[in-house]
Amino acid sequence: MRLLAALLLAAGLGVASTAGCGTDAVGVDDCRQIEQTRCDYAVACGLTDDAEACRRFYRDQCLHGLAGGQPSRLELGVCLRTIRAAGACAKEDRQQTLDVCASDTKSGPVPVCDVISAPERLVECDFLASVPVEPFEAGADATDGGDGSGGDATAE
Questions:
Q1: Rounded to whole angstroms, how far apart are CA atoms 83 and 112?
Q2: In whole angstroms, how far apart are CA 58 and each of 45, 47, 51, 75, 88?
Q3: Rg of the chain, C-alpha, whole Å
Q4: Which residues pair with residue 111 across a beta bridge?
Q5: Where on the phi/psi map is residue 37: left (φ > 0), alpha (ψ -120 to 50), or beta?
Q6: Is 0.90 surpassed by the pTM of this model?
Q7: CB 127 within 8 A of CB 75
Q8: Which of 64, 104, 150, 152 could potentially form a cystine with 113 if both were Cys, beta carbons 3.0 to 4.6 Å apart?
Q9: What span, in angstroms and rounded, lies between the C-alpha atoms of 54 and 149?
Q10: pLDDT in tens, 54-105
Q11: Is the CB of residue 87 less than 8 Å from the CB of residue 40?
């Protein structure tokens, strides 16, 4: 009886220990590039006070990969360029809109800090969402405050 209990316990531990070890995460490095870029500009938008803490948080969070799957190099590049353009504008004027900062945007006049706060709602970054999300509407604000300051970049 003890032998049977020991075997069952060992088998149970073996299953439990292997279930959490594997990962099928995709886009871990791409996730990190996107989130580190967002963290770099989140301070300018008032989304966080500490860009380094934000970067450390997402370094680990990105181990889960991208929910929307692996983007192509082109998709990733377009998304990153759009976030960077919005971030550069946010450093100058956080009330600015994306169409002023990135003339080639397909997303229209989105407040730049909303881009940093919710890039998955951009046409250029729609691969970030695992399910379709409502894209930004022209002139709409993703925040509940309506001031273009965005939400908490570390709370996603």
A1: 8
A2: 18, 14, 11, 20, 21
A3: 20
A4: 97
A5: alpha
A6: no
A7: yes
A8: 150
A9: 17
A10: 999 999 999 999 988 899 999 999 999 999 999 999 999 999 999 888 878 8
A11: yes
Locate 38 and state its tokens.
Answer: 């967002």
**Block residue for tokens 């069952």:** 8
- Rounded to whole angstroms, the Cα distance separating 25 from 100 reads 36
Token reading at 104: 């080639």
Q: Which of 118, 123, 128 is nearest to 148 (CA)?
A: 118
| Residue 28 dihedral angles phi and psi, to the nearest 5° | -60, -50
List, in order, residues 6 or more apart from 93 with CB less than 8 Å away: none
- Tell me the per-residue pLDDT of 9-36, one tens digit each, with 9 for 90 and over: 344 433 333 344 557 888 999 999 999 9
CA distances from 3 to 6, 7, 152 (A): 5, 6, 54
